[in-house]
Design goal:
Helix content is 72%, strand content 2%. It is mostly helical and 402 residues long. It has one domain. A two-stranded antiparallel sheet has the order 1-2. It is globular and about 70 Å long.
Amino acid sequence: MVQLFPFSEYWWFYLAFIGLVILLLAVDLGIFHRKAHAVGFREAATWTVVWIGLALLFDALLYQYAFWKFPRDARLMAIPGFDPASASWRVSLEFLTGYVIEKSLSVDNIFVFVMVFSYFAIPAKYQHRVLFYGILGAIVFRGIFVAMGAALMQYHWVVVFFGAFLIFTGIKIVVVKEKPPDPGRNLLVRLLRRAFPVTNVLHGSRFFAREDGRLHVTPLLVTLAFLEATDIVFAVDSVPAIFAFTKEPLIVFTSNIFAILGLRALYFMLAGAIEKFYLLRFGLGTVLAFVGLKMVWLNDWFEGKFPITVSLTIIGVLIGSSVALSLLFPKKHPSGTRMVSEASAANRQLEPQRLEVGQGGDPGWSGNVSRSTVRVLRKAIAIYLLLLGLGLILRAALDFGF
């Protein structure tokens, strides 16, 4: 299959994109988060919108560039039946699909973040710094995984292997209840503790500190090491999942990175409410199983390419429905009270600064809004997501003449 964006011709695009990411991260840490502080809900929600907006803007610009470039590319125009307009639109949809998949799977990371920060007793004002450097490491590892995937996915047996692996992972997520992570048993954390002595207390926002003239690592670095290790595990699922929808490494890499960039803001926005989306794991597991089926069977059944619009619709409906149903039917204890996870409770105890920000700096979330109003808003959002999913299904059916 001919690549639309071969690395030999678009190496400059990768460099420009990495430069853009570095610039965005520099602005984020050097200007907006120069001083350590607890990130409140309003700030996190604003940054979440900003990162999603930047991803959609990039998608639009990528479409415009492809629409301009493809008709001028003699290599592509020499392919019999090549339609530059259709190919440009497909590039845009593939980026959006990859972004949605990675964004959805990254929600599972948030639960791990909550548990790890509670385990190592990391205050809220230092969590952003840990996540920032975690993002830098994730970008490097995702680049390595994408490069490996681009080389391996050329072999059909590798595609089938990863497809079967995703099906197994999806079924496991749905059937087996996930156990909380145990950072103390993580191999990387144990190796780090053997190589360096670890301080018993934090030393501000520093990763290294000297005690009694000897270099020590602080709990911040141990936390960062564990988060990097868990991200590598998550990448084993997410990178092959996006390769199921596109064979273009450029699209896989850019969609992956944009989803990762917004992960910090998403964490600070949802950390206190992540247990409310208790049905999300069923949606994520079903999505992974669908992606695996697409790699193993559906692509071949549709002559090499399962319709991207149908794929995007299925993923959107599965994720949206799991979120909507979680909000419509909140999980309760046997006594009837709503579930609040121990991890989230512990995390909130470690974050007095965040509560102060939310109560003093954000009147809309200060407790003045009644619980009944919040419940009505949640159900309204859930109904909207369900209607949106039904609309997407209807649109896909009309497009394909069903």
